Amino acid sequence: MASAIGGALAAPTGPAAPAASPKVQAFLDVLNSAGGKPMEQLTPQQARKVLVDAQAGATLPAAEVTRKTITVDGKPLGLVVVKPPGSAGKT
Predict the structure, then answer these.
(1) What is the pLDDT along the chain (91 residues), one digit of tens a residue?
(2) Known Gene3D superfamilies for this protein (predicted)?
């Protein structure tokens, strides 16, 4: 019985991890090709810089950007609303 329990614990079961979309996989490949430390070994500041630098050359689509401040529980909360140009709806 002990060998049956040990065998059951040795091989994890369950669904396989989902595959990344081609665009996400391409982004991950670029991050991994730099040869630096893995993200989990970086400080939060270093990890943010890696991601900012990795996205620096990306061309963003046109967008309507609106900044607003609302009050929540008596405190100001800054919002940035990003919408496709010409989209319907209130900002």
Answers:
(1) 445 555 455 556 778 878 889 988 888 887 788 778 888 899 999 999 988 888 888 888 889 999 999 999 999 999 999 999 888 877 6
(2) alpha/beta hydrolase (3.40.50.1820)
Q: Note whether residue 6 is domain-resident.
A: no
Q: Give CA–CA dist 85/9, Å, rounded.
A: 54
Nearest to 30 by CA among 49, 50, 45: 50
Range of the domain at 86: 60-91
* CA pair distance 20, 27, nearest whole angstrom: 10
Question: Global pTM?
Answer: 0.42
Domains in the chain, number? 2
